[in-house]
Amino acid sequence: MKRLALQATLCLALLALGACGSTTGDRVASGAGIGAGAGALGGWAFGSPLTGALIGGAVGGAAGGLTDQNQIDLGKPIWR
Questions:
Q1: How far apart are CA 62 and CA 72, in angstroms?
Q2: Count of other CB atoms within 10 angstroms of residue 44
Q3: CB-hemisphere CA count at 13 Å for 20?
């Protein structure tokens, strides 16, 4: 049960934060970064941080690329 709750929390965080920025490239980059970080933490909890980071980065990048600026916009990225 604990594992499922952690996975659900990480997925919700990924979806909520996976698309920061105004351009598609910004959202892909920030989504991949946030997803990789969340995935690494989740993977670390289960003994495989690299796998978690790879999966989280891919899912976060995809979430960022598939969203529109009007769907999720948390402001200007820090690198701009």
A1: 14
A2: 13
A3: 17
**For the chain, which residues make up each domain, given as ranges?**
2-66
Q: Which of 11, 22, 9 is nearest to 74 (CA)?
A: 22
Distance from chain centroid for Cα 72: 13
Rounded CA-CA distance 7/78 in Å is 27
CA distances, 18 to each of 31, 47, 60 (Å): 4, 24, 5
Determine the pLDDT at residue 15.
61
Share of the chain above pLDDT 70, in %: 74
Residue position matching structure tokens 């790879």: 54
pLDDT band of residue 58 (cuts 50, 70, 90) is: very high
